[in-house]
Amino acid sequence: MIDALRITLPAEDDFEAWRDAARGLAESGVPAHAVVWTVAGGEPDLFGGDTPPPPPGPSFAVPRSFVDLAKSAICHTDRERFSLLYALLLKLRSNKQALEDRADPLVHRIERLAKEVRRDVHKMHAFVRFREIEEDGDSRFIAWFEPDHYIVRQTAGFFMRRFTTMRWSILTPALCIHWDGETLSESPGAERAGTPQGDPVEETWKTYYASIFNPARVKIKAMTKEMPKKYWKNMPETALIAGLIAGAQKREAAMIERSEAMPKPTRNIAASWAALREEAAHCTRCELYQCASQTVFGEGPLNARIIFVGEQPGDQEDLAGRPFVGPAGQIFDTALEEAGIVRSTTYVTNAVKHFKFVLRGKKRIHARPDTGEIDACRWWQEQERRLIQPAVTVALGATAARSLTGKTLTISRMRTTPLTLADGSECWVTVHPSFLLRIPEQERRAEERALFVRDLTRIRERVELLT
Fold this sequence. Notes:
4 domains; 14 strands; alpha/beta
């Protein structure tokens, strides 16, 4: 009987160590059943130290998709994950298309592990809440989180990018990470009793959360599935949920009653839109999802005759999860009113659904999305327009115009003449309301605002003509 090869990895989530060991074993032709994978500091091994593998054979390449899959799956708590991944690596050595066989139980199991890890990462991004404490005369922010898998190191980059200028610590039962503004460090796991239980900012946050809570969208089962109650104790806003839901259930019943009175085609569109919005909530088509708080999808009636397409969410939209609720949104609402357009009858969305920003101190400053990000997000607004089928689509600014037409347009040249989009519908181009905020001269700002209202008035008149 051949003795099994014992491989000890430095940490539960050490992909690089596993990759190096697995590559050598695979090149040596060692079968999966002949390898025992362990982690340093775990249960003592009865058979002594690691066994050196036989001499390696020729090297081989694997698809990039396997590397991405393995980086996620290796963070799972399943004790068999190292062996499973090694078995799949051996399959790929002899068949580079092995990952494409979705009926293969091994592929299916590893993909499930990776999916559960990605979901856990998403929850850590969403549900970590920092509380401020005084430390050596300076502020430090502490958070407690209980992940289901070994994801703390994997998520560290997200918090470093998002809270670059803050001094913070995230404490978990297995591992703690600390950021001093320049260096990330680690320490052993902690207990929740050592974390602060509140700070003055929480009352402000609760007030804000209550003001943006949308009872019309509350689905209790879906909410508790997405935000399990194990995370509630870390989040100040969850203390408000019970009271907010009480009123939501009554309003939901009224919404259902109104929905049943709609014609059947309208109900089908509503179901399709809701499914589209849910899919967009997990969009990873570009890198912007990594730092934004959430996807900000469009809103408005699904029989709207006008769709307004802006550039991207701003800071306040990113927090609220709704388009055009910040300073530019206030200008937009006032201009619509002067032009005789009721916003609640229009559908409002953005070309890019995640907030792109740069940090300056503690402030998140808007950064213009690039062509790749615009093109990656175009699919969402195309689906919104396909469902709603408006009489007119309005591009608010150059980014929206690029998303709708695929071309770089000059607003001043295009704002007086409608364009025909690829689907045959009509598109008008005007400035984005944030453009008015950036004009320092009061007189010129007033002139440009008047032109903006003129454009909106012309659009209203055009829609009335078409319908």
